[in-house]
Amino acid sequence: MTDARRAVGVLGGMGPAATIDFMAKVLLHSQAAQGDAGREQDNVRLIVDSNPAVPDRNAAVAGTGPSPGPALAAMAQGLARAGATFLVMPCNAAHAFAADVIAATPLPFVHLIEETVHAVRRDHAHVRRVGVLAVAATADARLYERALEPLDFTAIVPTGAARERFMEGVWAIKAGRLDSGRAIVAESARALVAAGADLVIAGCTEVPLVLDSDDLSVPLIDATDVLARRTVAYARGEALPQR
Amino acid sequence: MTDARRAVGVLGGMGPAATIDFMAKVLLHSQAAQGDAGREQDNVRLIVDSNPAVPDRNAAVAGTGPSPGPALAAMAQGLARAGATFLVMPCNAAHAFAADVIAATPLPFVHLIEETVHAVRRDHAHVRRVGVLAVAATADARLYERALEPLDFTAIVPTGAARERFMEGVWAIKAGRLDSGRAIVAESARALVAAGADLVIAGCTEVPLVLDSDDLSVPLIDATDVLARRTVAYARGEALPQR
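The joint structure predicted for all components is written out below.
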């Protein structure tokens, strides 16, 4: 059962719908872990700061906007004060500023991108070319490349016009225009497959709001779902990562 | 636009799916208030303690279990430390312990049941007999009766075997068995209409997870949705209730 002493601090709001999606997946995996005997009281405690005012990660990495680092550090500290015992951040691009979060409190930090790449290595050992639906900040900071390449994976991320087009899809989803967002990100995913990807990571938390494995001819790995599963495992007592 | 100084503290996890439903409704009304020009950064900031370990409200009101008051007070204080500037609690039954929440911090508290009854009076002036899908704690503490009767409404709540049956439906929903929960609470709602209700309040946050107005011959008021709309209004600057 859940270790009641473990409360998960969630740095969220990037965007708010992605945070809700993450919480729903935590609940799903928490209920599955309990089985039919589960009581409401056995679910995972989440303390969530869904703060949509965090500065845009893409502008920050591009050098055209303020860093979200200070806001994320303040959120981490607030979550610690509210009782969180470890931290997660269901936004890929914000991991360009993970060092600010880690430095802000003594709490363990569960790293979305590391956990996702570990899951790919464990479950898809034959794969070599990994497509990543990554926004500009994630791509420019080489977040997935830095995790994938030491494990002999080749990362394929959208570049140039394809990246601009993918960003349009993400902005549409963030604005609640799911149908137009879905069409664009499905096109982006198929372009990664056409470029040789054996598997595609939904490396932006807006993507799984509109896309699932049925939309593609190769496996689609939902980084949000990976983080949710790992969050439940850690909340139920698995040893937390040390840094 | 949203007043960036107003962060909403949410006492949640009762149950976790109801908290997610509340957050989704806040996002919906927040996006609607912004219109097409809305940016992610303009959405409402929610700081949420989704704490499923809060002791059962029904057992506490019945005198057969510990009070959730101390846990709710500690959550309120944690949310204040994390930066919340006013508090909401998307669980009807927990309002039997609203005094503990209000006493725990100096923050304004937006009262789910008062807001819901105000919405009924404003939008359904002709109605006199109000059915309330209320769990045992809500009914035994007379939370809706105390708000409705001074305004000359008559409250009709499930009693006896009908209440037991409704509780079975709520437990099914909390356990994730939505189909069986839906069948039972729809039957409970229709029984209130048969008993003379001109309108039914979904006075338990699990109910709107499975039931909507199309399921009934009279209006169904979703208390979660009322609270979400009011939360967005307060976050965007409306004068907060004073106590």
